[in-house]
């Protein structure tokens, strides 16, 4: 019975191949760059799609130019609730003259759909949308309920999108498992992610004439010493459950990281990193600087909390009386982790093996996604999407074969989850 349904789902995707690609092209042609972040055009395209297929939805727009769409389909007595989540907004285009393709062209050439946001994540959001369409046709045959959440401000932190929905709509959007198609590389699936810990360190001294260093300390020289001392934060080691550490140490997982994200990614995923993103101080060469500001970008892996990091930063800064710490307006948050032994991980691996002949490795993401908002509310959330190559850069373009593979994977994995099937090798109960 299940295999018959899977065959039908795959047949629909095959029949709709050109339509699915055309939708992604149309979606790419709508400017949803954030900033500035007006995503109404992208939301309207998705709303028209849902309307055209008779799929009911609600628009939730706590901020007028950032509408979010929420659609739900359910079997009569659902025992499971799957959430499909994607975002509409994309990175800014940047310097247009450096693009050789039209960033808003949605051109189909050389096996890719080209344009800003095709990789991150218009391909993924399109995959969720079509998975929702196909699964809604069969929802009556499942034991589940399914909710699609399409949000508008992932690139700027999710305040009016995923964070708002998970905070205000409760069970309607929380579900008990989330699938998201942010870029991951088809060889990995993501069950956790690092998080940002940003702060500005301000060094203030009296300052003065460059020839009179006996009268004031130099803010830039203190900053230089402080930066060297700050590197100590990179020695803080995460505390992870032993089975998670063991999983991340497997050779096939390290190999998948390196292949998808470049050599060294496996190591970076599990440790604190420090980036001095900005540094500004001094007015002119012969003056002794009285001010220097350091923009610090620390990334925390799961197993290191923001409170732990704050403590470490304060201890280091205490050695420099001229230094004060300034935090961004929003409270620092912690990295998030879902259980890698969750059945959805096995379902995704089985599905990809069936479709493409390999099993994606479960990994922790270096960057952030909206999945964190669900994980913080104890809802397991998993990411499986196309290669991140070109994401946010010039000439961004998603491979059509990867895109369609992601459509198939999310549709079939969603079906497996909703129908209550267990992946091979995972015991129920
Ligand atoms: Zn994204």
Which features would summarize this protein structure in a list?
429 residues, alpha+beta, Aminopeptidase, Alpha-Beta Plaits, six-stranded mixed sheet, four-stranded antiparallel sheet, globular, binds zinc ion
In short:
The protein has 429 residues and is α+β, with helices and mostly antiparallel strands.
If you had to describe this structure to a student in words, what would you say it looks like?
This protein is of the alpha+beta class. The protein folds into 2 domains: 276 residues, Zn peptidases (Aminopeptidase, 3-Layer(aba) Sandwich), CATH 3.40.630.10; 97 residues, Alpha-Beta Plaits (2-Layer Sandwich), CATH 3.30.70. Helix content is 37%, strand content 21%. Strands 1-2-6-3-7-17 form a 6-stranded mixed beta sheet. It has a 4-stranded antiparallel beta sheet with strand order 11-13-9-14. A hairpin with a 7-residue loop joins strand 1 and strand 2. The two termini are 22 Å apart. The C terminus is likely disordered.
Mean pLDDT, all residues: 95
Classify the beta-strand content into a percent band: 15-25%
CATH superfamily of the largest domain: Zn peptidases
Total individual domains: 2
